[in-house]
Amino acid sequence: MGFDRNFTLGLLWRLALLQLLLVLFAWAVVTPGLGAVRIAAAALAAGAGWLLWRHVYRTNLEVAQFVEALEHGDTQVHFDRGAGSGFGRIGAAFEGAIRRLREERRAAGDERNFLEALVNDVPVALLTVTGEGRIELANKAARRLFTEHDGVRAQDFAVYGATFANRLELDAPVREEVLILNLGGRAKRAIVRSAALTRLGERARVVIVQPVQETLNAVEMAAQTDLVRVLTHEILNSLTPVTSLAATANTLLAQVDDLAADGGRIADARLAVSTLERRAEGLARFINSYRKVASEPRIDRRRFEAAPFAAEMARLFAAEFPGVALDVTLRPEGFLVDADPDLMAQALLNLLRNAAEAAAAHAPAPRVALTLARMANGETLVAVEDNGPGVPADLRRDIFLPFFTTRAKGTGVGLNLVRQIAVAHGGAVEVKDAEAGGARFELLV
């Protein structure tokens, strides 16, 4: 990489001028009586030296300014290669390098924007933990999911669960597990994955949270539905011919009543067959009543006033359980419920009936409380609690299974239907301890 022609010519004539003036100055020094010439020659030699220094410094200044601009991240800078500038070939190389750098930076920026958009819109929640222990919600899903805390430290996330908060610590073990988180006022299972990373030379951590409670509910309900459908189909296939044959046998036996010699035996046979027919018909009705467990509720969601709905439930309750007191609370007064009113009524009547029967069998002054409240996130909370014996902790998940019951006359269908209706609305149902010591069922839709 040599100098360009203009720079070389400029350098040569400045050097020649400086040498000539230095010779003139030396001649004036050795020649007596030329003091003025000596001073003028010294001044001119100094000026020629300055011109030479300025000519060389100009190129150095251009290179320094170019490199300084790059140091500050300015990729729009150009290397000045005007007339008289040095380093022509290196200037062209600089221009090519900066052009390639500009293109690579543009491509890197596009890729970064794509990755940022991808992370921001990914449907699972991403949280990052920096080396200082600061927790950041890295995408939209995380900002929608975690709305109840205040702070950026792991302990601030304890509102969602102490175990989850521990997993957000920088030194927590890297693992994948299913945790129960308190999200939106209800307990939900979520898959929590974590990984250790390095960020700007410091240790960091990323935590992925994927709620799966709704998926698990749907899968469980589908499995239960398939099981019940298969069982009812096979049992009914077996009962249909039994019922038909029993009816036919009973008819034939009725036609031979005139056989007096065998009348007693025929009467016994007819009684046995008639009993078989009745029991078979009763079993068929019993199984048909369970078919509704295998039918997924169809939601006709609309907005309706909570107050008239609660008043109607109270009237139906009073007609069926006149000896059980019912307290009704609305928060706030006059709000609207967004749900299927018929299915909600069916679910609520099941909960009220169970509460009344539990309270009446346990307390001398049975009481049931019904609460309808609008939550901060727009969901509706329907709570039914009683002063009965409550539900033991080890049975609280089983009571929602089909056909599971702790009552002698129970069918085990009502609470399963309540759960189906809640899941069909995108909600959930849970059982807790009531303040009065009984059970509290909370239905969120």
Automatic annotation (TrEMBL):
Any one Gene Ontology molecular-function term assigned to this protein's record: kinase activity
Cross-referenced InterPro entries: HATPase_C_sf, HATPase_dom, His_kinase_dom, Sig_transdc_His_kin-like_C
Catalytic activity: ATP + protein L-histidine = ADP + protein N-phospho-L-histidine
Transmembrane intervals: 12-30, 36-53
Lineage, broadest ranks: Bacteria, Pseudomonadati, Pseudomonadota, Alphaproteobacteria, Sphingomonadales
UniProt EC number: 2.7.13.3
Keywords (A to Z) from UniProt: ATP-binding, Kinase, Membrane, Nucleotide-binding, Transferase, Transmembrane, Transmembrane helix, Two-component regulatory system
SMART domains the UniProt entry points to: HATPase_c
Pfam short name (any one): HATPase_c
Domain Histidine kinase: 230-445
UniProt protein name: histidine kinase
Domain of life: Bacteria
